[in-house]
Amino acid sequence: MAKIVMKFGGAALASSEQIQEAARKAIAEKDKGLDVVVVVAAMGHTAKEMKMMVHQLTDDVSKRELDAVLSTGSQLSSALFAIALQEAGYEAVSLTGWQAGIHTDGMYRQARIDYIDISRMEEHFAQGQIVVIAGEQGIDEVHNITTLGKGGAETTAVALAIALEAERVDMYTNVDGVYTADPRYVPNAQKLQEISYDEMLELSNLGSHIIHPRAVELAKKFQMPVIIRSSLIESVGTLLKEEVEMEKNLVVRGVAFESDIIRLTVGYDAFSNASLADIFTVLAENRINVDIIVQAIIDGLKPTVSFSILKEEFAEALRVLEDSKLSLGFSFADFEIGLAKVSIIGSGMASNPGVAARMFDRLRRENIPVKMVSTSEIKVSVVVPQDDMIQAANALHDEFNLEQALYI
Amino acid sequence: MAKIVMKFGGAALASSEQIQEAARKAIAEKDKGLDVVVVVAAMGHTAKEMKMMVHQLTDDVSKRELDAVLSTGSQLSSALFAIALQEAGYEAVSLTGWQAGIHTDGMYRQARIDYIDISRMEEHFAQGQIVVIAGEQGIDEVHNITTLGKGGAETTAVALAIALEAERVDMYTNVDGVYTADPRYVPNAQKLQEISYDEMLELSNLGSHIIHPRAVELAKKFQMPVIIRSSLIESVGTLLKEEVEMEKNLVVRGVAFESDIIRLTVGYDAFSNASLADIFTVLAENRINVDIIVQAIIDGLKPTVSFSILKEEFAEALRVLEDSKLSLGFSFADFEIGLAKVSIIGSGMASNPGVAARMFDRLRRENIPVKMVSTSEIKVSVVVPQDDMIQAANALHDEFNLEQALYI
């Protein structure tokens, strides 16, 4: 039988009424004759409340125990969701990560899925049951409970869809689809009917918090169709797939932006070809996400490298750099806070030279200083002062005529 | 290395401060060179809050899903407890029921432990870790999460102690030991230094809510020493063991009482020797605990049987009787609410005739009507009007000179 995976985040499950509403959506799919898997995150602010309880006990929690704490959140919501389905007259069963056969590596707080044993889920399908799975969690090789960290529930949903050979994943979010820019800040933003994995990946990586890039990457790798739709209203949503038909003259497909960026700069005591790799290796080992990297080697000055990170990883990044500065031969130089990143994205960009130049020119005319630049085949990102972020986003949305992106 | 199992209930874990205080008690035992297992219930009112969440979704929850909900409570508190131990500088690890190797039957809400695989716990001991276990839960043969129901955390603690061949179990409660009667209602009550399993079993069955009879039964079966002590103050507590030295002339060791008893009476349409067994078989199959049973066969009248149950099982008992009255050939006759049970307990009772007579005589002099009577080798219970319960308890405490029970 054809299968569908549906994912609901914490904001869509904050109350009994919301759980019942989400359950109705699952039932609608079941009534179409599909086998339904529901993946749920922890209800509302549960995770935050649990972190506060932990914080009352320690400032330095072991990651294993934090995972043991946090995993109870989605476990609870999965059981409540199953209860709501049963109350509506449908057969349902809740499964924790380990019961669902989700096996991960042992990296607490940000575990990666190794494999999924679908045998138990298949048994429940055979009994006509809707299967509700606690998202964001699994077990490692020695049966410790792990959580998947950011984007965990979405990644779980995509991974399950792949393992179960489902038709698609429906990601229920607080938006009704993917827009050319965040409509809360860019009034002319338009909803897209379809978007390619690559474009969505750039959008996700560039601060659009609709869906986590991990989930998009995984969907792309296995060509799993994903629909971004609203948990609040009925909507067709936006379909993520490999190839998207687009207007030839629309080179740029969207504008993304993200605040709370910090630029860190380190100076080399002695530069070698290995230095650059060493710094980013140690940051990667500590799972600090470095975004834009700019290296400057100017005669007469110490060589420096600047890179941008998220504000929330600032303290940890400083600690890591401090711990390894002697062994790696660099010294901490400078940091700048209060920055934001604004990006333009579009698969057609690679074959259209001059897009970046047009972007910089418009920002110059808007009197917005550009602090860092990063480009890929399908996007250009700039780091600008946070205060200029909204203005920059609207200006670029206008510059590339995105208000004409009539894909709906 | 010698091992100890310590059990903390929800009331002893209601706040961060209480968790830290309980953790200090565990550390004190670890510092004595013992391997320490801590068994915890869900924090404070967690279980009640979760049941309310479930109640908002349904009035008829599936037991499997209710267990999935409730198991998250002790899972959370076990992780928080481990975090408190780590913060104090001790190695600790939290384990869920299934991680701790606790295998149960598949009877949700009141599962029984089949066996415990101690291999994982032994690994943690070998690493010097204090092991904190989510009480009240396990997994069944097909890996569903089960909870053990009433007395679950205490039963888990005793079962773990037996499996691990621990020295003893320390049950931390809100009282500092076992008294000749509940000192809140019987001012002359005295604390006992020791009490036999059998006496404790009678006390537990007779409404003393210090420790659940399931746990006492299990401890008795494997001769596991148990200390009842206070989570609030330092105290030596009361030791449960097989043989207790007692004053020869103290035939009665304690007075127990319990309110909210209901007497149900059914009448037989046609009586046969099988009838009695049939009724109580069907009640037992539905896990309704029947306490005192009185059967009356009077010439010219329909035979009747009366039995007492707890108020909370009243609705379910009525349902069961209603469902089976046709097949079993009886009709519901009567019930009486607002009753209480008062009991006297003592191992020396069997060899001292006249104890029951002395009890009835005193109650008659106090003008307290006796509705039902039940006796065993070491106790006599009477059912009286609930309004007379405290008076009866104090009178019997006085009658058998328990204020002289100086065992402290």
Automatic annotation (TrEMBL), chains A, B:
<comment type="function">
    <text>Catalyzes the phosphorylation of the beta-carboxyl group of aspartic acid with ATP to yield 4-phospho-L-aspartate, which is involved in the branched biosynthetic pathway leading to the biosynthesis of amino acids threonine, isoleucine and methionine.</text>
</comment>
<keyword id="KW-0457">Lysine biosynthesis</keyword>
<keyword id="KW-0028">Amino-acid biosynthesis</keyword>
<comment type="similarity">
    <text>Belongs to the aspartokinase family.</text>
</comment>
<comment type="pathway">
    <text>Amino-acid biosynthesis; L-lysine biosynthesis via DAP pathway; (S)-tetrahydrodipicolinate from L-aspartate: step 1/4.</text>
</comment>
<dbReference type="GO" id="GO:0004072">
    <property type="term" value="F:aspartate kinase activity"/>
</dbReference>
<dbReference type="InterPro" id="IPR002912">
    <property type="entry name" value="ACT_dom"/>
</dbReference>
<dbReference type="InterPro" id="IPR005260">
    <property type="entry name" value="Asp_kin_monofn"/>
</dbReference>
<comment type="pathway">
    <text>Amino-acid biosynthesis; L-threonine biosynthesis; L-threonine from L-aspartate: step 1/5.</text>
</comment>
<feature type="domain" description="ACT">
    <location>
        <begin position="344"/>
        <end position="408"/>
    </location>
</feature>
<keyword id="KW-0418">Kinase</keyword>
<dbReference type="InterPro" id="IPR036393">
    <property type="entry name" value="AceGlu_kinase-like_sf"/>
</dbReference>
<dbReference type="Pfam" id="PF22468">
    <property type="entry name" value="ACT_9"/>
</dbReference>
<keyword id="KW-0808">Transferase</keyword>
<dbReference type="InterPro" id="IPR045865">
    <property type="entry name" value="ACT-like_dom_sf"/>
</dbReference>
<keyword id="KW-0547">Nucleotide-binding</keyword>
<dbReference type="InterPro" id="IPR001341">
    <property type="entry name" value="Asp_kinase"/>
</dbReference>
<keyword id="KW-0067">ATP-binding</keyword>
<dbReference type="InterPro" id="IPR054352">
    <property type="entry name" value="ACT_Aspartokinase"/>
</dbReference>
<keyword id="KW-0220">Diaminopimelate biosynthesis</keyword>
<dbReference type="InterPro" id="IPR001048">
    <property type="entry name" value="Asp/Glu/Uridylate_kinase"/>
</dbReference>
<protein>
    <recommendedName>
        <fullName>Aspartokinase</fullName>
        <ecNumber>2.7.2.4</ecNumber>
    </recommendedName>
</protein>
<dbReference type="Pfam" id="PF00696">
    <property type="entry name" value="AA_kinase"/>
</dbReference>
